[in-house]
Each structure stands twice: as C-alpha cells, then as structure tokens.
Design brief:
- The chain is an all-alpha fold.
- It has a domain at about 220-390.
- It is built from 19 helices and no strands.
- The longest helix has 27 residues, at about 90-115.
- The mean pLDDT is about 90.
Length: about 400
C-alpha cells in the first residue's frame, strides 16, 4: 500500500469533511426530497401525490418553511427508504447526519476500491484525487443528493465481486438497484460472466426494499411508476444540458422546443430517439462480448458502471460521482487521466451558458464525454486481457 495514495486519501477526506460541515446548515433541494419521502412513508401518506410535482413541492415547502422545491419523480417508491434512518429528526439535524454518513461511506468505499486496485499496482494519486474531489462529489454534498451512498454500495459490490465473493457482492448490487435502479449494466456483466449466484443474490436483495416499503404505501404507486418514468423521459426539459446524457445531446441537436431548445442544430427528431439507444446498445454488446472472453473481472465491472451512466435517460452532475469507480479500478495513461480530469472538472455553468445553440452544443456535454472515454478505456483493458489470455 503506497503512502502517497493513503496520504492523498486522508487529505481529500479532510477536505470533504470541511465541505460537509459548511453545507450541513443550509436548506437546498436534493436531500429534502429524500427526507420528505421518508416522512411521508413513516406517516403512511406515501401515495400518488408524491408523483404530482406540484403537490410534492408544496409539501416540501410546508415541511421546511422555505421556498425550496424538488420532485420525487422519477424515483421508485422504495427510494423513500434511503432517508428513513434520519426521518425522525428535525430537518436540519437530519441533513447533518445524512451528509456525515454519506461522506464516511464514500471515503470508505474509495479506500476499499484503491486497496483492491493495489493488488495489481498502486492507484495513481491523480486518479484518486479526481475521484474524491471532482465537482460531482461536492455537488452531492452541497445539495445532499444520495449518490455518495449509491457510490458506496456499488463500490463495495465491485470490490466483493472482484474477490469472487458472489453472494455479498450481488446482494450489495441488488440493494442499490432496489433503491435507485443504479447499476443496471452490472447485471448484464454478471450474466455475461455466468455468475448465477451473484445474480440470484442481486435479485433477492433488490426485492428487499420493494417488499419492505410496499405494506406502508399506496400500492398503486408501483403500477404508476413505469408510466411516470416514461413521461419524465419524454418531457421537453429533457434536452437541457444539465442532463449530461446521450439522449439529451441528440435531443438538443435534433428536437426544437420554444422554451427549452429554440435553436437546435438540425431537424432530425426521429434520430434523437433512436441513435442514443443504438449507441448505448452497441457499447453494451461490445462490453458483454469481451467480458465473456476476458479474465479481467475488475475491468468488466468498471465498464458496467460506466455503461450504467451512459444508459441513464437523465443524469445530472451528482450522478457522475459514480465515474470514480472505473477511475480507481482501471489502469490509464497519464494523458487519459488528464483528459478525463478536464472533462469532469470544467464547470457546467460555463458550458451551459456559452454553448446553447446550433452545433456549439456539442461542447456543452463534458461529463457525458468523460463517461464515454472511461468506458472506452475499460473496453481496451478488456480487449487487451482477452487477447493476452487467448495467446497463453
């Protein structure tokens, strides 16, 4: 274990602790949605109103006594469990506990991932610092989003799965899926590797949050959920550059909207809803093809995390904290780390303001390009290890 990365980890953890202390006393969107959902759950009032953005926003304002608004859409009903451990407390104290727990879990997961990578060579300090101090991490802390917790669950799952601990790793993955539907591509990776015990554990663990929450909610929520997600994805606001997704990029280029996208580069609406899924589908097929042939389990799992982000129809800054997992696991050249760092650090506020019309919007999706580049690095590692294994 290198002293360099351990010292960098300790320093970065201290910086995150300072950010947590600074952010704990504020009231923002993000955490308040988790907190409000948990409060509705504990009082037996989690019903169709949660998917009514106006009703849910008004409930948040009543709960906090502020003008802060957020939405529960498009989360599954089981997401209400995430803030349940702190729901009994007053909002300010609950937020402080939530942020502190999130950062502790995140830092522990980073340490575990870096230690796992250390079996084949020390993780570069630059990659470690980028994974821990990227803007996505501070966004999660600033607004109290839940993706530091999801990072911890998926990171721990990847570590255990890398060690061939199928039941433990599968259970952690399944639990993350049950809360946020995060990590879906990892299921495909496990299937390609024929890790049936891991898949069975994931399926059982994914059901646990569903079964835990269902007796205490209006059951119609589960029947509404697929339609709610479909409607959310189709909203015209889906073309805003805050959503750093392949779908958003093509909608921005191809689909005009007087409010959200008045100056698209072209008129190609049919392409906007076909090309993104075709590209992600092709990436998935390539990944699964070489995962099946490669003995390098960590590269396949890392590729699965990157694919999960690429497949999301709506992914904002906070989601991209998950890219820290492949960053920590897969060997990269210095130039690749530098390129990914640039794409993950450039402020989205700047790109969103400067590149708003025509083909200039191609420059407004740096996080998306970082995800594609990381996936490509993972695929290269899979191909290399597959060819090496075949040569032996």
């Amino acid at each position: 274990m290198s002293r360099g990365w351990v010292s960098a980890w300790a320093l970065a953890t201290a910086i995150l602790a300072g950010a947590t202390y600074y952010s704990a006393a504020t009231v923002t969107h993000g955490f308040i949605a988790y907190y409000a959902a948990a409060r509705l759950l504990t009082h037996g009032f989690l019903g169709p109103g949660a998917y009514d953005d106006v009703w849910f926003g008004a409930f948040l304002q009543q709960l906090t006594g502020t003008s802060i608004r957020d939405i529960f859409t498009p989360n599954p009903p089981s997401m209400a469990l995430m803030a349940l451990p702190v729901a009994a407390f007053e909002h300010g104290f609950a937020r402080a506990l939530w942020l502190s727990g999130s950062v502790v879990l995140f830092a522990a997961a980073v340490f575990a991932l870096a230690s796992e990578r250390g079996k084949d060579g020390t993780v570069p300090v630059a990659a470690l610092v980028l994974a821990m101090l990227a803007p996505a991490v501070f966004t999660n802390i600033r607004i109290g989003q839940g993706y530091l917790i999801i990072f911890a669950l998926l990171g721990a799952a990847v570590v255990w799965l890398s060690r061939q601990a199928s039941i433990a790793g599968g259970a952690l993955l399944g639990f993350a899926l049950g809360l946020k539907l995060s990590g879906t591509a990892l299921v495909l990776v496990l299937a390609a590797e024929r890790r049936w015990r891991a898949l069975a554990a994931a399926g059982a663990a994914a059901l646990a949050p569903v079964l835990a929450v269902t007796p205490f909610i209006d059951k119609t929520l589960w029947f509404q959920y697929p339609d709610i997600v479909r409607e959310f994805v189709q909203r015209p606001a889906g073309s805003v550059t805050a959503y750093q997704t392949t779908l958003s990029l093509f909608r921005r280029i191809c689909v005009a909207d007087p409010e959200w996208n008045p100056s698209p580069a072209a008129s190609c609406e049919p392409l906007a809803f076909v090309a993104p899924y075709a590209l992600v589908g092709l990436a998935a097929l390539l990944t699964l093809l070489f995962v099946h042939r490669s003995p390098h389990a960590r590269a396949g799992l890392a590729a699965g995390v990157a694919l999960t982000l690429l497949a999301l129809p709506a992914a904002a800054e906070a989601h991209f904290v998950l890219l820290g997992i492949p960053l920590l696991l897969v060997p990269m050249k210095t130039a690749e780390i530098a390129a990914i760092a640039l794409l993950l650090v450039v402020p989205l506020e700047i790109t969103a303001e400067r590149f708003t019309a025509g083909w200039s919007v191609l420059l407004a999706y740096p996080r998306l390009y970082a995800a594609w580049l990381l996936w490509a690095v993972c695929l290269r590692q899979l191909i290399t290890s597959s060819l090496h294994s075949k040569a032996q």
